[in-house]
């Protein structure tokens, strides 16, 4: 891979990768920047050995997602050892980066299809119709996946039920 190919790919993918992570890290800029940097370092190592993948943006997003999930697993272990604040003192999920990360972690644990549909609907703001078209499934199927995914999230994140957001 030449330096020019690398720079072109970087310029074409960096904004999208930052946007992808910004929505999934609860706006934690430092965490997003660290993950983007680590993703490109891994790309540099891998692509120099194996060549650039057909879809560099998709490859980078997948690596970034894996790095974020690893971060969440490590931070969960740390959070478990700390004392939790009183129930009334917590910030709403959108304002609390740790809560946003917890939500994203729970979504990631639902399985690829449910997670992809929830992400498209809530993070990317796509309509049921757009998701159905992108995934080549019926709108009813998308609605069913959303319903089941929301139920699963209520079980995984029972303390968030009273915090508003889009409901069924």
Q: Secondary-structure element order, as H and E? A: HHHHHHH
- For the CA atoms, what is the radius of gyration? 18 Å
What structural class do helix, strand and pairing data support?
mainly alpha
What average pLDDT do the residues reach? 80
Low-confidence stretches: 80-95, 162-168
Task: Calculate the terminal CA-CA distance, rounded to whole Å.
Answer: 48 Å
Oligomer type: single chain
Given the C-alpha coordinates, what overall shape results? globular
Note the main sheet.
Answer: none
Strand runs, count: 0
The percent range for helix content is over 70%
Number of helices: 7
Number of domains: 2
Strand content: under 5%
Keywords, separated by commas or semicolons:
168 residues, 71% helix, 2 domains, disordered C terminus, Arc Repressor Mutant, subunit A, mainly alpha
How is this structure best described in words?
It is a single chain. The chain has helices at 3-24, 29-50, 56-81, 97-108, 112-123, 128-135, 139-156. The protein has 168 residues and is mainly α. The protein folds into 2 domains: 1-83 and 92-108, no CATH class; 112-162, Winged helix-like DNA-binding domain superfamily/Winged helix DNA-binding domain (Arc Repressor Mutant, subunit A), CATH 1.10.10. α1 crosses α3. Mean pLDDT is 80; it is low at 80-95 and 162-168.
